[in-house]
Amino acid sequence: MDQPVIASLPIMVVDDEAEVLKSIEVALRSAGLGEIVTCRDSREVIPLLSRMEMGIVLLDLIMPYVSGEELLNEIVEKFPEIPVIIVTANDEIDIAVKCMKSRAFDYIVKPLEKGRLISAVMRALELRKLRREDEILKNHMSTRCLERPEVFSEIVTANEKMLGLFQYVEAIAGSREPVLITGETGVGKELMARAVAMISLPEGPFVSVNVAGIDDNAFADSLFGHSKGAFTGADSVRAGLVEKACGGTLFLDEIGDLNPGSQVKLLRLLQEHEYFPLGMDHARKSGARVIASTNKDLPALQSSGRFRRDLYYRISIHHLDIPPLRERLDDLPLLLDHFIEQAAHALGRRVPSYPAELITLLSNYSFPGNIRELRALVFDAVCRHTSGILSLQHFRLHLEKCRSLEKGAHAAGSSISGETSLSRLDSLPTLKEATRLLIREAMRRAENNQTMAARFLGISRQRLARHLKNSSTPS
Question: What would be the CATH architecture of the domain defined by 428-475?
């Protein structure tokens, strides 16, 4: 569990002095940084970089054969994705400025201060990691096929936006950085989180916790655990969820509702990959990948001071924004078939068919509860179903009830603000013009089904037919 954070790519150290190479290697390994490639002969640097992908290069300036300045320019030209840190005894300002203008990532003067060295290396590795992931993402997104479609089998869709998100998930599969999943209530954020976990860490556990409304002490105890005697009633050691998620995924649902004090504790976990169980004075390393989700507008919460800006940047290194159902209405037939079959199977009944008008009816509803609302609606309709074709009546009643509530809320808001949906119009249409436009839009949404268009308008089919006849009659 207390594993060091290993760099994903090797670190190359170039210096003609064996003692310097050894001291840098010891310092990097003591900080938990992994594979170190040392090189004393500057002529071997470019061939090595051509054969082996490196994370960063630590480069001395004064060396025989090829100087550090020459190597810096060649590395920047041939391998622009690799950050180069100059490590030299030369403390002349003009040399440092020249190197930075040649696009060196940093300039460190010997004798080396370990803290300064490690800080520079960690920042360079972070930059390299982001550049590498961006390259992988671009390459992956250039193809339209999925490598692991089975991972997304629980998410029913053929929508282009959703398929694009699946490709993005595959592209970041090798990353262990935090993932933020946003979207309205009911869009399937946890299903997407499970897909991310399955493709990234398929053998590891998936530990989920809803952090909304948890006070700071309960949050720390739940996530980090405690030692025996840490507080009154702590009669035994308790492993926290971070420990249980080791080697797998920790899913933090509703992170937009996390208390400010808990946000600070979570920030340390994400930044340092370590945590303190209650009652313990030494840190433990975290081996879990963090995925967070929310239906809140986090940038707005930042502006109001209710969500830390630094925490937002840490949890949103990878960001998946799931579109609402009203923006993926092309999925309605697939989802409807899926939920009807699922409901019939659960109830031990034959799968009923449904009228084609049902798709049109549902396509004209905003679905504030998204996929979850559609599933509940279908299950209830199948439960009420007795025989024949699935009735439209139950769906109509639900939609009319929800529209009535929505109109009431909108009217209340308008009365408070003194504004209506027509307030922004420069000039009003005549009643005849407005009626004609309204009927035309209702017929478009109903796909020329007069019965349905009449229901949208709240009038009888006969009255709609008269309007249509009058509008088609030359004046």
Answer: Orthogonal Bundle (1.10)
Whether the pLDDT of residue 461 is over 80: the answer is no
Q: Omega before 149 cis (within 30°)? A: no
Domain residue spans of the chain:
11-128, 143-323, 331-420, 428-475
Confidence band for 279, pLDDT divided at 50, 70 and 90: confident
Task: Outline where DSSP puts E strands in 183-309.
Answer: 206-210, 225-226, 238-239, 249-253, 274-275, 284-285, 289-294
Query: Which residues, 6 or more positions from 50, have their beta carbon under 8 angstroms from its beta carbon?
Result: none
CATH pick for 331-420 out of 1.10.10.60, 3.40.50.720, 1.10.8.60, 3.10.20.310 = 1.10.8.60
Confidence of residue 405 (pLDDT cuts 50, 70, 90): low
Pairwise CA distance, residues 251 & 261, whole Å: 19
Q: What is the DSSP string of 421-449?
A: TTTT-SSPPPHHHHHHHHHHHHHHHTTT-
Q: What is the pLDDT of residue 2?
A: 37
Of 58, 11, 57, 49, the residue nearest 32 (C-alpha): 11
> pTM score > 0.85 for this model?
no
Statement: 143-323 belongs to CATH 2.40.30.10: no
Size of the chain, expressed as the number of residues it contains: 475
Containing 33, the helix (H) or strand (E) segment is none
186, containing H or E segment: none
- Residue 172 CA to residue 291 CA, distance in Å, equals 13
Please tell me whether residue 319 adopts helix, strand or coil conformation.
Answer: strand
Helices assigned H by DSSP within 174-215:
189-200
CATH number of 11-128, picked from 3.40.630.10, 3.30.70.1070, 3.40.50.2300, 3.40.50.800: 3.40.50.2300
Query: Within 13 Å of residue 370, how many CA atoms lie on the same side as its CB?
Result: 14
